Amino acid sequence: MFETAKTVATDPLIGLMELYGEDRRADKLDLSVGAYRNNSGEVFIMNAVKEAEARLVKNQTSKSYVGMAGNPQFNAAIENLVLGPLSGDGAMVVRTCQTTGGSAALRLLGEMIAKINGGAKVWVPDVTYANHVPILAASGCRIRIYPYYDPASSELLFEQLLTVLETACEGDVLLVQASCHNPTGANLTRDQWRELTEMVVRKRMLPFFDVAYLGFGEGIDEDMAGLREMAIAVDEAMIAVSCSKTFTLYRERTGAAILFGRDRGSVDRAFGNLIDSARCMYYMPPDHGAAVVAEILTDVTLRSQWERELRHMRERLKSLRTALATCLERFCGDDRFAYLDRQSGMFSLVPVAGRNSAQLREESGVYVPADGRINIAGLAESDIPMLARALCRTPALKSGRS
Fold first, then answer.
1. At 143, which helix (H) or strand (E)?
2. Residues sharing a CB contact under 8 Å with residue 228, sequence separation 6 or more, in sequence order
3. Phi, psi of 182 (to 5 degrees)
4. Within 190-287, where are the H helices?
5. Cis omega (within 30 of 0) on the bond before 147?
6. Measured between alpha carbons, how far is 197 from 189 in angstroms, rounded to an integer?
7. Three-state SS sequence of 292-348
8. Each residue's pLDDT tens digit in the chain (402 positions)?
9. Which CATH code fits 2-46+303-400?
10. Pairing mode, strands 236-242 and 254-261
11. Domain 65-298 has CATH 3.40.640.10
């Protein structure tokens, strides 16, 4: 049987990681993988996470199964973190399933859409997280694309977004990243959130929020403000949550799929379909990461420590963005990279797509995916001049200078 298998392309990010590991140059820089590094280049573990783990090791008395919906304390805590006051709103029915990372949440929610409303189209941004379309398509969803971002001008295409979404049908699903957009770093303003909410309500679309970088933009409540404003205006919605970056739990694969709506019976039936997909996929999620998050979010001291660490990570990202934009202005002789300072989160796009990204790697030792996405959180302060010089030497930037 195996001889009939077709060759599948390797994940390009994994390929870049392998090339980086084989590169013997002393001066090299990996900005491809989406992990937050400190100024020493380490993908560290938060101190709040270490303390929570120590408590669990000391106090945990069983490794028994937790059920298909996962850790109930985690589920309640993550609902409160994401939805804030809405999680306790008696008019809203909320159901949460712990998942094996944010990717599994996307897959489960995608399967639920295909199972209970197979005629619906899922509208996805033209520039988005690389796994959105593959995961949702593999789930059986019908994908449609809406314009979001123009790499040439480094600006949101909000008017075009609204124009295209006017063609959506009632019951269609709108996928939107709640904050710190991957890969662009360009986010909706509060006014744009309100305008998009008005359209979603009027068109009777179903919002599908992806929350992967909570707290990395402006703060926890600030990053969730648009999501919460839309959530309170619609009859039902769903959320995929990742704890990988926000809690530095990457390989613990900790995430959640959240459903909420106003009709208890409808939400419960949809949640039953979600749980059934989980049963057929992995049965139940691993508990460790979820137990860590629950310990942090339900303990006043640990929660305060985690928020301080998250604030430091956020402020460092902002500082790196400012420093990189300033250095690029000095080396390139213009302000074309000023947008980096306006954007937020771990990622932004730089104009080195395709062959230029390969040239950047071969000539300067800077590893960037073919779409030009750079991981700002992969930089140390001392790396900024190296990156700025390398970017300004690429043909795309040289030819664009006045």
1. strand 142-146
2. 83, 84, 85, 86
3. -105, 120
4. 190-203, 220-233, 264-281
5. no
6. 12
7. HHHHHHCCHHHHHHHHHHHHHHHHHHHHHHHHHHHHHHHHHCCCCCCHHHHCCCCEE
8. 999 999 988 888 888 989 999 999 999 999 998 999 999 999 999 999 999 999 999 999 999 999 999 999 999 999 999 999 888 777 889 999 999 999 999 999 999 999 999 999 999 999 999 999 999 999 999 999 999 999 999 999 999 999 999 999 999 999 999 999 999 999 999 999 999 999 999 999 999 999 999 999 999 999 999 999 999 999 999 999 999 999 999 999 999 999 999 999 999 999 999 999 999 999 999 999 999 999 999 999 999 999 999 999 999 999 999 999 999 999 999 999 999 999 999 999 999 988 889 999 999 999 999 999 999 999 999 999 999 999 998 876 665 543
9. 3.90.1150.10
10. antiparallel
11. yes
376's tokens: 């700002």
Domain spans of the chain, in order of start: 2-46+303-400, 65-298
Which residues face 173 on adjacent strands?
122, 206
First-to-last CA distance in the chain? Answer: 59
What sign for the dihedral angle of Cα 246, 247, 248, 252? negative
Tokens of 367: 């590893």
Q: How far apart are CA 192 and CA 212, in angstroms?
A: 20
pTM for this one? 0.95
